[in-house]
Amino acid sequence: MKKGIHPQYNTKAIITCACGNKFVSGSTRDTIHVELCSACHPFYTGKQKLVDTENLVRKFENKKKAAASTKVVNKKAKREKRRAKVSSIKGGKKVTLKDMLKELQNK
């Protein structure tokens, strides 16, 4: 091993978990902060825990609420609405584009 190129190894590095658990291990750093440890990891505890560091769950829930609040109109309802609008213009008579163009030329 070359001397002077390797970091100093600390045998008493303190590792702190997000759940509050602390333990000592070896590392090149003095302190390390982690999100999961053996005291709170689902594999060891048998309980599921959500780790949402980037707020992905909250963003998904907000999108879900927004989607639920918007009114969804299916294609049939839109088509019927357009037909009702067109038929009300011509008094219930079916109007085509050809009829509309003829009417414009006559004016």
The secondary-structure element order is: EEEHHHH
CATH topology (fold) name of the largest domain: Rhinovirus 14, subunit 4
Tell me, what's the shape? elongated
CATH C-level name of the largest domain: Few Secondary Structures
- Could you tell me how far the N terminus lies from the C terminus, measured between alpha carbons in angstroms? 96 Å
Structure summary, number of beta strands: 3
Number of helices: 4
Helical content class: 40-55%
Strand percent estimate? 15-25%
Overall mean pLDDT stands at 82
Quickly give the CATH architecture of the largest domain: Irregular
Protein structure class: alpha+beta
Task: Please give the radius of gyration in angstroms.
Answer: 34 Å
Strand order of the biggest β-sheet: 2-1-3
Stretches where pLDDT is under 50 for at least 5 consecutive residues are none
Domain count: 2
Quick one: biggest sheet? 3 strands, mixed
